[in-house]
Amino acid sequence: MSELRASPGTVLAASPDLPDSNFSHTALVVCEHAAEGAFGLVFNRPAGIVVCQMFPEHPLLRSCQQPVFWGGPVGMDSAQFLHLVPEEIHGGEELAQGVYLGGDFEEFANLLHEDSERAMSAVRVFVGYSGWGESQLDAELAGGSWLPALLDPAVLFGGGEESAWRAVIRSISGMDGLSHQPPDSSWN
């Protein structure tokens, strides 16, 4: 069995040569990577919807205007969230650097309702996720489709679509030149 090179909390930047257009210039955080497969969340692609559209019946979330991000093409009927506030949203799983996956849903809803400004900088909501089957992510990493990097919460929670991808690429030793690549290398 090959060694897993992308543990939970690892950030993966899509290589400019990644052939799947779904992931062009994306950056994602790995949430789980085991022999059976892996899953992660793309954090730099807005989904074009806000939280109230996902939870129109929830008494606290039905008016929440926080943007939702596209976590990936799998499970588009599922919601996930990452956050930096384990003292306010209990029960999450720490991925790395104080970034938590999930937690108590009602505490999550209360934070978004009561302190929307704080939630904008400390919580990121996702629809869908990115998934890989057994050994699939290992093969993509070995083939250079994904470039592993350390998690920087400031990039995860603060960057824009393109700037987050570029910031992740610049953080990888020897890869800074790639950060200037256009989404399609044929544009050169």
Describe what you observe in this structure.
This protein is 24% helix and 31% strand. By secondary structure, it is of the alpha+beta class. The protein has one domain: 3-Layer(aba) Sandwich (VC0467-like). Strands 1, 2, 3, 4, 5, 6, 7, 8, 9 and 10 form a ten-stranded mixed β-sheet that branches. A hairpin with a 2-residue loop joins strand 7 (93-96) and strand 8 (99-101). The N and C termini lie far apart (39 Å).
Task: Give structural attributes.
single chain; VC0467-like; 10-stranded mixed sheet; 6 helices; 24% helix; disordered C terminus
Calculate Rg over CA atoms.
16 Å
The stretches of 5 or more residues where confidence is low (pLDDT under 50) are 183-188
Helix content: 10-25%
Q: Which structural class best describes the helix and strand composition?
A: alpha+beta
Main beta sheet: 10 strands, mixed
Can I get a quick summary?
With 188 residues, the protein is α+β, with helices and mostly antiparallel strands. It has helices at residues 51-54, 105-114, 116-122, 136-142, 153-158, 161-171; strands spanning 11-14, 27-34, 37-42, 46-50, 67-70, 74-83, 93-96, 99-101, 123-132, 146-149.
Furnish the topology, listing elements before pairings.
Blueprint: E1 11-14, E2 27-34, E3 37-42, E4 46-50, H1 51-54, E5 67-70, E6 74-83, E7 93-96, E8 99-101, H2 105-114, H3 116-122, E9 123-132, H4 136-142, E10 146-149, H5 153-158, H6 161-171
Parallel strand pairs: 5-9
Antiparallel strand pairs: 1-2, 1-10, 2-3, 3-9, 4-5, 6-8, 6-9, 7-8
